[in-house]
């Protein structure tokens, strides 16, 4: 599933082409995504200008005076600006046709993504209102993680990927940040000290920024807004490297299922 760096890479990629553009029409070829594409989007969005392109966790928000489009890329979706003359392919389910002859096209092979419409403040939408702070926000720090984790017995990896605690972090970047901070992903969140959480907050920001700089990570068929694949996974320290030598100490990287996902770690470098 695209995580914060992949979604932020997409946001930056479409912002220049979408900002200030008027939506001429909305074409929905397949309304049955994770949630049905609302008919109100087709009726109410055309004629309005995209004033903002923002991100909240793993969600993209296109703002207009009439309302906001809330989008999610699902498991393997992508969002691109292409000429309207380019014929849609099998998995191109939704187009926002722009007045300049281009369109914002959602491709979603697994149909786990979302295109929703709200006339209210998007921050109060049921999908966004309970999300935790953005780890790239200026005021995000280890103190938040420390306070929220007190008394928690769940593994720190699972704590980090819970969007109610921190928005936008998935398994890839949680594993990589924990390695950078020297913290075992199996350790109970409530047993980690304030000092180590400060280190973890820094590692999260650094790891996410590195992911954005590399265009995100491409697993399965994700690609960015320019159609290119990300290459963060090629430099991963532990994620997806079970059985391979740790890049720091040489001990073999281990993998263990936590919840429904595998955690990757080095037993020497992470305590």
Written description of the protein model:
The chain is an alpha+beta fold and 271 residues long. The chain folds into two domains: 4-124, MutM-like, N-terminal (N-terminal domain of MutM-like DNA repair proteins); 142-265, Helicase, Ruva Protein, domain 3 (Orthogonal Bundle). The protein contains six helices and ten strands. The strands form three sheets. The protein has a four-stranded antiparallel sheet. β3 (59-63) and β4 (68-72) form a beta hairpin. The chain is elongated and about 55 Å long. The protein starts with a helix and ends in a 6-residue tail after the last strand.
Q: Distance between the terminal alpha carbons, to the nearest Å?
A: 28 Å
> For this structure, what is the CATH class of the largest domain?
Mainly Alpha
Query: Helices and strands, in N-to-C order?
Result: HEHEEEEEEEHHHHEE
Helix content: 10-25%
Number of E-state strands: 10
Widest β-sheet, arrangement of strands: 1-6-7-5
The domain count comes to 2
Largest sheet: 4 strands, antiparallel
Residue runs with pLDDT of under 50 for 5 or more positions: 218-226
Which architecture name of the largest domain does CATH use? Answer: Orthogonal Bundle
CATH fold-type name of the largest domain: Helicase, Ruva Protein, domain 3
Q: Quote the beta fraction.
A: 15-25%
By helix and strand content, what is the structural category? Answer: alpha+beta
